[in-house]
């Protein structure tokens, strides 16, 4: 890497547990699996880390963000937003708490004088969010490839070259959590009769959900079980 090479961060953010909210993470996973990058390019699963990402953003001259974004467009629509417009789209219609956190990250970076010179948001309009433990819907999953193409074009515009791998990495060669790889996540999900799909406040009203009769006894049992396994 030459000393004048720009520092590039290709970042995926989102929550894998909320169906299409996991788009950003799945997109950056696929980017990593299919492309080799030079030393000045970092590919990162940012998850829902929010303000903990601030130093990574401060270090970046070029920032590409994959995310699920409520643009008010038809479900499954892919849209790119660039430069100063990015914070507006992350905050106009928030679909999760991580977007508020990422807005703050950008604001903090700017306040500290280390805002990226070039910023690109690649977002997809979610089809479904209210499905706790669900995976990407087909219309959203189909946009992973096109979203990566947008990222590659943006990098090329700014003189940054990445190379296709001769063979894509295996699913276990992931930049994200090994336990949350797409294959394990989709095949390991309990049947709907065993696990309520909606993780919001309506779960409590669902007659399939029952809390422990003796909460303190249940907590003690779980603590003892955990302690016994260490």
TrEMBL record:
<dbReference type="InterPro" id="IPR023430">
    <property type="entry name" value="Pept_HybD-like_dom_sf"/>
</dbReference>
<dbReference type="InterPro" id="IPR004419">
    <property type="entry name" value="Pept_A31_hyd_express"/>
</dbReference>
<feature type="binding site">
    <location>
        <position position="21"/>
    </location>
    <ligand>
        <name>Ni(2+)</name>
    </ligand>
</feature>
<keyword id="KW-0378">Hydrolase</keyword>
<comment type="function">
    <text>Not known. Could be involved in the processing of hydrogenase.</text>
</comment>
<comment type="similarity">
    <text>Belongs to the peptidase A31 family.</text>
</comment>
<keyword id="KW-0533">Nickel</keyword>
<dbReference type="Pfam" id="PF01750">
    <property type="entry name" value="HycI"/>
</dbReference>
<dbReference type="InterPro" id="IPR000671">
    <property type="entry name" value="Peptidase_A31"/>
</dbReference>
<dbReference type="GO" id="GO:0004190">
    <property type="term" value="F:aspartic-type endopeptidase activity"/>
</dbReference>
<feature type="binding site">
    <location>
        <position position="67"/>
    </location>
    <ligand>
        <name>Ni(2+)</name>
    </ligand>
</feature>
<keyword id="KW-0064">Aspartyl protease</keyword>
<dbReference type="GO" id="GO:0008047">
    <property type="term" value="F:enzyme activator activity"/>
</dbReference>
<keyword id="KW-0645">Protease</keyword>
<protein>
    <recommendedName>
        <fullName>Hydrogenase expression/formation protein HupD</fullName>
    </recommendedName>
</protein>
<dbReference type="GO" id="GO:0046872">
    <property type="term" value="F:metal ion binding"/>
</dbReference>
<feature type="binding site">
    <location>
        <position position="98"/>
    </location>
    <ligand>
        <name>Ni(2+)</name>
    </ligand>
</feature>
<keyword id="KW-0479">Metal-binding</keyword>
<dbReference type="GO" id="GO:0016485">
    <property type="term" value="P:protein processing"/>
</dbReference>
């Amino acid at each position: 890497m030459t000393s004048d090479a720009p520092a590039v961060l290709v970042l995926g953010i989102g929550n894998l547990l909320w169906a299409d909210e996991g788009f950003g993470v799945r997109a950056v996973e696929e980017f990593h699996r299919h492309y080799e990058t030079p030393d000045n390019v970092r590919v990162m699963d940012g998850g829902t880390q929010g303000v903990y990402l601030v130093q990574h953003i401060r270090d970046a001259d070029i920032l590409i963000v994959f995310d699920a974004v409520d643009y008010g467009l038809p479900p499954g629509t892919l849209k790119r937003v660039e430069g100063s417009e990015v914070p507006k789209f992350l905050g106009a219609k928030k679909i999760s708490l991580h977007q508020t956190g990422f807005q703050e990250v950008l604001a903090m970076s700017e306040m500290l004088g280390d805002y990226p010179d070039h910023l690109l948001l690649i977002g997809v309009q979610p089809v479904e969010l209210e499905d706790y433990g669900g995976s990407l819907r087909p219309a959203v999953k189909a946009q992973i490839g096109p979203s990566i193409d947008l990222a590659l074009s943006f990098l090329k515009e700014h003189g940054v070259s990445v190379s296709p791998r001769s063979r894509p990495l295996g699913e276990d060669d992931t930049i994200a959590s090994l336990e949350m790889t797409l294959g394990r996540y989709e095949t390991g999900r309990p049947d709907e009769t065993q696990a309520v799909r909606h993780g919001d406040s309506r779960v409590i009203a669902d007659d399939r959900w029952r809390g422990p009769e003796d909460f303190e006894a249940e907590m003690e049992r779980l603590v003892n079980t955990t302690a016994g396994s260490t």
